[in-house]
């Protein structure tokens, strides 16, 4: 019998159900997270227009830099203030 | 062979229920040992409970598995023990009438034997067996999950099947190999040395050793891998983003100090290429830790559009001898054995076979460095300039050190922003219009590193481009290599 040691982090990920998709965004607070990539704002400006026209309340957020994960405080803030979040990637 | 650090993790002697020693006299022998054969009549006369390491039929007990020998820490055979209440209370090794009589309380032992005969080495300290024994019985301190491979599994295919490789075969990380690897460091296997992105997993020295085995490292390479991982997982290196980016880059390791030569690293011919075990496996080990411990796999968190072959491994030593420059790490505040991590994106050749003055050669370097990332993007990406010995000689003979060369390149690479604006020169890429009318440096302060490496012949140098630089991205990080 040959034995090898597990080279992985041996993480056990907890699976969480996705929240049900809202039937409508009317009256909901939608967060738009700009990750600070060039022209991400162009995309999000247009999204904001469309969402506002659909009756959603839009809040804008911005990561300090796209090269790092969003700071904990920012994630918490979005979680507290929004029902739905849209994160805009660039490239 | 370089000297290896002696492991601090000595096996502790533990008697399992099956290993309860009988009270009275106990001996461990091997039939191959002339001294053991010599004392056989004495052992039988005394009624000693004898365990034999290499012949199950010689005495009443055998220790062919060497478990007892290992647990008792037997180094020499014969070893005679006195046991009271299951505990060893006295021990002598080899044959010495005086000592045996003292231990047994009997006189006139082995009257026809010489006074004294040294014993032989115990099989349990045979260098070819000790790793397996330590892995099996040693309370080795290894805490990684153990996987039993099925009889019909090919061990190399098994590594691929579990998703543990970078696309090339790996060395199966058996407990024996991992223990051997851990002898390369004095650090505790359970010490957490880094939090590895993207899954932010606490990574122990042991986990690094497991991946270093897989990468093909030797134990003496491990301290460099550990230092590289520490450097890579600093906040300023931004490994999470470096891994996740669509850009080409991955961690490149430059090694300085006497350790580079001691562990057989290459800083000379083909320094950035293949064929040197230390270079190849150290860089690979770091990437395997990121993949396996951190969970950073291409196509998942790693979103590189194209990547680059250096993401398999990218590690070399600076050629300190004959260099016009002080060692890179020393210039960055860490003299001696050290690693410098850089977010390397690939190798771009610099050809200049005619310049014989530092001024001319610096202008060549500047012209080639200007295109780093894009000729119209200033301060966007760092770079490492790898100066070859034949190019380095031009600077050495002119008395230019690193600071002098970097200052000259800074002057040559101060660019009029109007040439860099979006749309300028018929190219949409560039900087915003609001930056018109000023001068901008191609590299941010500290964003251009200079290293000396390569073979004796060739009027070529190299540029290794970086990634998004500085506070918004990755900054080079230098760390001491500790044993």
From TrEMBL, chain B:
InterPro entries: Thioredoxin-like_sf. It comes from the Bacteria. This is Thioredoxin.
């Amino acid at each position: 019998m040959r034995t090898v040691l597990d080279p992985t982090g041996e993480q056990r990920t907890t699976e969480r159900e996705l929240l049900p998709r809202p039937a409508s965004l009317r009256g909901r607070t939608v967060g738009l997270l700009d990750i600070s990539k060039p022209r991400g704002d162009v995309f999000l400006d247009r999204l904001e227009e469309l969402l506002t026209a659909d009756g959603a309340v839009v809040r804008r957020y911005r990561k300090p830099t796209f090269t790092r994960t969003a700071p904990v405080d920012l994630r918490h803030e979005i979680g507290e203030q929004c029902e739905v979040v849209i994160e805009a990637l660039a490239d | 062979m370089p000297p290896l650090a002696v492991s601090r993790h000595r096996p502790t002697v533990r008697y399992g229920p099956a290993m309860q020693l009988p009270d009275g006299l106990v001996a461990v022998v091997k039939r191959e040992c002339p001294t053991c054969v010599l004392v056989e009549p004495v052992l039988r006369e005394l009624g000693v409970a004898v365990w034999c390491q290499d012949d199950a039929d010689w005495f009443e007990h055998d220790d062919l598995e060497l478990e007892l020998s290992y647990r008792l820490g037997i180094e020499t055979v014969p070893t005679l023990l006195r046991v009271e209440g299951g505990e060893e209370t006295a021990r002598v090794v080899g044959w010495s009438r005086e000592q045996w009589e003292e231990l047994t309380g009997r006189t006139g032992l082995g009257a026809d034997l010489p006074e004294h005969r040294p014993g032989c080495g115990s099989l349990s300290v045979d260098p070819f067996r000790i790793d397996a024994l330590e892995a099996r019985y040693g309370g080795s301190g290894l805490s990684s999950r153990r996987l039993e491979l099925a009889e019909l599994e090919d061990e190399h295919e098994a590594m691929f099947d579990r998703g543990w490789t970078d696309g090339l075969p790996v060395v199966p990380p058996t407990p024996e190999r991992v223990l051997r690897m851990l002898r390369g460091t004095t650090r505790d296997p359970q010490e957490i040395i880094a939090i590895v992105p993207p899954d932010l997993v606490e990574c122990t020295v042991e986990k690094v050793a497991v991946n270093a085995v897989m990468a093909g490292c030797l134990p003496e390479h491990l301290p460099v891998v550990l230092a590289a991982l520490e450097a890579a997982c600093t906040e300023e290196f931004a490994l999470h983003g470096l891994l996740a980016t669509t850009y080409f880059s991955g961690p490149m390791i430059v090694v300085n100090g006497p350790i580079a030569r001691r562990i057989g690293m290459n800083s000379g011919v083909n320094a950035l290429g293949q064929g040197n075990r230390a270079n190849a496996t150290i860089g690979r080990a770091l990437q395997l830790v990121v993949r396996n411990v951190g969970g950073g796999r291409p196509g998942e968190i790693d979103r590189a559009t194209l990547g680059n072959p250096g993401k398999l491994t990218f590690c070399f030593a600076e050629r300190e001898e004959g260099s016009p420059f002080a060692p890179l790490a020393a210039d960055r505040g860490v003299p001696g054995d050290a690693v410098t991590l850089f977010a390397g994106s690939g190798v771009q050749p610099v050809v200049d076979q005619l310049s014989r003055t530092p001024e001319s050669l610096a202008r060549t370097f500047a012209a080639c460095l200007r295109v780093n990332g894009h000729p119209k993007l200033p301060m966007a990406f760092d770079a490492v300039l790898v100066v070859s010995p034949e190019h380095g000689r031009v600077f050495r003979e002119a008395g230019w050190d690193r600071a002098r060369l970097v200052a000259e390149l800074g002057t040559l690479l101060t660019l009029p922003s109007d040439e860099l604006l979006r749309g300028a020169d018929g190219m949409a890429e560039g900087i915003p219009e609001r930056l018109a009318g000023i001068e901008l440096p191609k590299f941010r302060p500290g964003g251009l590193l200079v290293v000396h490496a390569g073979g004796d012949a060739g009027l070529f140098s190299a540029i290794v481009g970086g990634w998004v630089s500085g506070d918004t991205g990755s900054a080079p990080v230098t760390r001491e290599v500790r044993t």
